[in-house]
Specification:
This protein is α/β, with parallel strands linked by helices and 337 residues long. It has helices at 6-27, 38-52, 63-73, 87-95, 105-110, 167-180, 182-195, 204-212, 223-232, 266-277, 279-287, 302-305, 318-322, 324-333, and strands spanning 29-34, 55-60, 81-85, 99-100, 123-135, 159-160, 218-222, 238-241, 251-260, 292-293. It starts with 5 loop residues before the first helix and ends with a helix. It binds fe (iii) ion.
């Protein structure tokens, strides 16, 4: 009878250890493509690696470039996760077949229904509220009520808007179409255009600066731009108003993530996504950019909390993607440049 020599035994041990290690090399890394800049993602990745030992490698670029890259790489992509801003972009990735449906009780518990894909291909991780900001010397808050009301003639030559080319406004109008239908929404947008005090502006900060300088009285912006400006100069005569609180709620969008269809480290990638939705990471994810946590059990940053509570529009954000083209055409018809 052949007996195992101690050499044989050592060899078997060596073989088994090697096997485990090789498997770990695969399981101990997640590759992320992120349209969110490095400063906004690295702290969470570091915390995740510290807790789990799983490394996170990431590439940052704009959404368009990352989507094109995922598409070109196809089944050979090294990416396991895609992080972008705006549901419209996540929807486009899903529509192009680049994402995979994820079954996770953790994610379903942590992220409310309206902030994730009905098929669970993408999940919101932070909430960005697009709301009214007004000049406190020229507007009484009681004059304000809804997005729709900004089409009323009482706002004639008092409104500033960012360009309709920005996906933020396309998503806002898409969600309005989902709520009111095309004909009604077109009337509202035409009203906005009639009320403009200046041509549409290139970005949210410019719009806020115009309101602060009294060139117009009200505008629509994402709150984190308001936060950035006010933390530089708290004396600016600007304040936030939460519209549609007795109706549809404030228009929100997300920055969020999905698991890529052809990634190789699915298990670890889902683990990272679950971590990002958890109490441990939610404040890191939202606070760094003065956004709101997507997980409703987590409180926003203290400075952000001073802007007050508001009710979000509970309509599923997939509409922002589905109706994006319709919204772009509508804005064009309405003369919104
Ligand atoms: Fe932005």
């Amino acid at each position: 009878m052949m007996r195992f020599s101690s050499n044989h035994f050592l060899f078997v041990i060596f073989f088994v250890v090697t096997l485990i290690c090789t498997q770990n090399v695969h399981a101990s890394e997640v590759v992320v493509y992120s349209a969110r800049i490095e400063q906004l993602i690295k702290p969470m990745f570091d915390a995740f690696t510290k807790e789990t030992g799983i490394k996170v490698r990431y590439t940052t670029d704009n959404e368009g470039a990352l989507l094109a890259r995922l598409q070109a790489e196809g089944k050979n992509t090294p990416a396991d996760m895609l992080i972008t801003v705006d549901a419209g972009n996540l929807w486009a990735a899903s529509k192009a077949g680049l994402l995979k449906s994820v079954k996770s009780d953790v994610l379903e518990n942590n992220i409310p229904l309206h902030l994730r894909d009905p098929n669970n291909e993408w999940f919101g991780l932070s909430v960005r509220a697009r709301t009214i900001v007004y000049n406190t010397r020229k507007v009484e808050p009681r004059e304000l009520s809804t997005y729709e009301d900004l089409a009323d003639e009482k706002w004639h030559k008092r409104l500033c808007l960012r360009s309709s080319k920005k996906v933020y406004n396309q998503s806002l109008v898409a969600m309005m179409i989902a709520e009111h239908g095309e004909a009604e929404t077109e009337k509202i947008i035409k009203g906005w255009v009639t009320n403009l005090a200046t041509d549409p502006l290139p970005d949210d900060t410019k719009a806020l600066e115009y309101v602060a300088a009294g060139k117009c009285d009200v505008t629509l912006v994402n709150t984190y731009y308001f936060g950035r400006l006010m933390s530089k100069d708290s004396n600016l005569p600007l304040a936030i108003f939460w519209p549609n609180q007795h109706g549809s709620g404030v228009h929100v969008n997300i920055s969020g993530a999905g698991i890529t269809r052809y990634g190789r480290n699915e298990k670890a990638a889902i683990q990272l996504l679950e971590y990002l939705s958890s109490a441990k990471a939610q404040n890191l994810f939202a606070d760094l950019n003065m956004e709101y946590p997507a997980n409703p059990t987590i409180k926003p940053d203290r400075f952000v909390a001073t802007w007050g509570d508001f009710r979000q529009n509970p309509l599923n954000l997939i509409k922002a993607g589905e109706l994006q083209t319709t919204a772009v055409k509508l804005m064009d018809r309405a003369g919104y440049k």
